[in-house]
Design a protein that fits this description.
The protein is an all-alpha fold. It has one domain (about 5-315). The protein has 14 helices and no strands. Helix 3 (about 65-90) packs across helix 8, helix 5 crosses helix 7 (about 145-170) and helix 6 runs antiparallel to helix 12. The radius of gyration is 18 Å and the shape is globular. It starts with a helix and ends with a helix.
Length: about 325
């Protein structure tokens, strides 16, 4: 088995596990506020962060070199987490994924003012086509747009903003800094808001959040292993396999019907995203390659952030 094939298969397994994680979010979201789910997700994620801090041999402290950019990214990640969790609880899984898949397109646009990236005509066309796919998924006028749709769009925008900031400051900041600030902010902000939305959780639901934390850790480790085994240009597109799992989980677990227009819109978004990823994988096509090197999964600030680790691996290669 070739290294790229191995990397692709590992990535497929990782994103299947991530999709299972999101199924638990949706199940819990039927009974609890996303504020409560995010708070306990962070709480159960702290042991893994502690292990990461212990194993981090790099010198330095937790003071950010770019405090303002770190603050902007932290705010974006915190907003993304609660928005994404709400969207999963309010919308069909496939529809949420289809909207979140627009994140690489938004990263490409944000790379212009933040990174000084030059986006030529072909990538602009890919972005416009992808945004048309988002319109197909949302179908304004044909269906009522809800807070769930707004939350999914907000999550995509927030995740894109957080990812592009990582690409800008990631060389200077320690990975633990990029990880710990969003998690601590989520813990404090969601903890403060918890008093207004808290509902007692039985043991099985609390166990579900613990399982979410373990699944996120395993999937993150597998994504890192995938990037070590295969080329990024092969591994990165595997994230789009989540639409398959979302469709299957939606049908068999949540009695969600297969929405043809959502699948068509998702196909358009995925095609444009794939074009951008493959285009940026070429030599001299993109100075910063923001999609390829920072985009792994929607950043929610509730688990390990693996973008900097992947980017450092790519730099070594």
């Amino acid at each position: 088995m070739g290294s790229n094939t191995q990397g692709a298969l590992i990535a497929l397994l990782a994103f299947a596990i991530f999709s299972t994680h999101d199924v638990i979010v949706k199940v819990l979201g039927a009974n609890y506020s996303p504020v409560q789910i995010v708070f306990f997700s962070v709480l159960f994620g702290f042991p893994w962060v502690t292990l990461m801090l212990i194993r981090d041999a790099s010198s330095g402290n937790l003071r950010p070199h770019h405090p303002w950019w770190t603050a902007f990214r932290t705010a974006a990640t915190t907003l993304t987490g609660v928005s994404a969790y709400y969207a999963f609880s309010a919308l069909p899984l496939a529809q949420v994924y289809a909207i979140l898949f627009a994140t690489p397109l938004l990263i490409t646009v944000l790379a212009i003012p933040i990174l000084g990236e030059q986006v030529r005509l072909r990538r602009w066309m890919a972005v416009l086509v992808g945004l048309c796919g988002v319109i197909v998924v949302l179908r304004p006028g044909a269906q009522a747009l809800t807070l769930g749709h707004a939350a999914a769009l907000l999550a995509a925008i927030g995740s894109a903003f957080a990812s592009i900031i990582v690409r800008k400051i990631g060389r200077d900041e320690r990975s633990v800094v990029l990880l710990i600030f969003p998690m601590m902010t989520n813990f404090v902000v969601m903890g403060a808001a918890l008093a207004f939305v808290y509902k007692p959780m039985p043991v099985e639901h609390m166990a579900g959040i613990a399982v979410m934390s373990i699944l996120a850790l395993i999937a993150s480790a597998l994504v890192i292993a995938a990037y070590k085994a295969g080329e990024a240009v092969v591994v990165a597109p595997m994230q789009y396999s989540q639409i398959i799992w979302a469709s299957l989980f939606g049908v068999f677990l949540f009695d969600e019907t297969m929405d043809v227009l959502t699948l068509i819109g998702a196909a358009i978004i995925i095609a444009s995203g794939l074009y951008i990823v493959l285009r940026e994988g070429r030599a001299n096509a993109s100075q910063n390659t923001p999609v390829l090197r920072t985009r792994t999964r929607t950043e929610t600030g509730t688990s390990l952030h693996i973008g900097p680790l992947i980017r450092s691996r790519l730099k070594k290669d």
